[in-house]
Amino acid sequence: MDETRRMEEGQSRGQNGYPKDELKQETQNNNVGGDSIEHDRSVEPLVEQEQSLMKQKTKRVATLDAFRGLTIVLMVLVDDAGGAYPRIDHSPWNGCTLADFVMPFFLFIVGVAIPLALKRIPKVKDAVKKIFLRTLKLLFWGILLQGGYSHAPDDLSYGVDMRFIRWCGILQRIALVYCVVALIETFTIKVRPSTLRPGHLSIFTAYRWQWFGGFVAFVIYMVTTFSLYVPDWSFVDYNGEEGKRYTVNCGMRGHLGPACNAVGYVDRQVWGINHLYSQPVWRRLKACTFSSPAEGPLRKNAPSWCHAPFDPEGLLSSISAILSGTIGIHYGHVLIHFKGHSKRLKQWLSMGFVLFILGIILHFTNAIPINKQLYSFSYVCFTAGAAGIVFSVFYILIDVWGLRTPFLFLEWIGMNAMLVFVMAAQGIFAGFVNGWYYKDPDNSLVNWIQEHVFINVWHSQKLGTLLYVIFAEITFWGVVAGILHKLGIYWKL
Question: Which residues form the Heparan-alpha-glucosaminide N-acetyltransferase catalytic domain (predicted)?
Fold first, then answer.
């Protein structure tokens, strides 16, 4: 009887667990986790909102694309200008810099997009197929771009010795988080209510299985990190001239320093030490180099672990990263179920500030330091809170106040995020251009522009590098993305 009444009122539940009227909202996949959604402008109570959805005007939430574009811009900036300005490059160990926000921002916006994308796939079987296909695509591109096969942009050779191929990377971590969070979202369709009960916490109870999945990831990470015994280990430094063997003395549990943490131990056991990232950022620590926080030659008396590989996108830390995706998907659920701007912002900002403050407390009390390399729980809270706050501010500026024009640049990049990631952040386009040179590989168009248009004009290597990244990379690809948007061309996964 209740189901009949809901059908008469336009609230019947579709096969994907959302009201059927919501299924008529258009979404579009443009890139890694990229989706769009239409929403109404009602401020009526939730039940009345769902009864009148068909009568309300809808529009695209531009904040999704703008936030994704911001994340790509940050990645290009810190990757290519971080060498000139170490303070914005990844923190060598504990702490958080501008570069350390990129990965959790990626995972956050991927999480936001998941429920929006799955709404338009009515059958669970089709949704699962799409999830696995996208996961495989992400893994393929991740290994190709960061496994060692591509040497762009400066080295014109290519190919990778399979003894040293790197199995982990940015896209591989996104693939893992996306797959886990999206599958939970898909398989919990039948246990979700079609409408929310009144109350601030109803959104959490409605999606309790998503939070349970995040909690399981949290428990696995915390128990392993603080209870796993890490024995002594050794390795050969193949970057050295003679391939010297080093030994690191550990024999402890719960260590959160570079040498004996469980995150590195798990990766050494699962992947093999030769398949980890060979230039970890901990080499910029004072214990390793006199050039700290910048890169420089290792000290002669540097600890043995300074020479060791370590993967910042390893397995155990990626399990912790599932929490970032879980928090992101919560923001997506709020976007779907709460139709008033004020209600959405109340949910988003309250959670963002709670997480942000919790991360700060855990760090400054030395309970759990903020650490991107370990993807510590305080790091998850701090960066997810920051992502939620920035996302909310973008939403106010773009979707509430209508200040969309100043952010079109970011929207364009966000709608073609995969293209800009591959061509700019991974240096593929610059490597392609460098393939044409005169007499010497260093005498290429890219290097000429860097030296003569930026560095020599400003008489500063640091400032010239920064301006080159801003104008010759970020601005250039923003314009390209805008042109492709006008032509309706997107790189989709």
Answer: 60-188
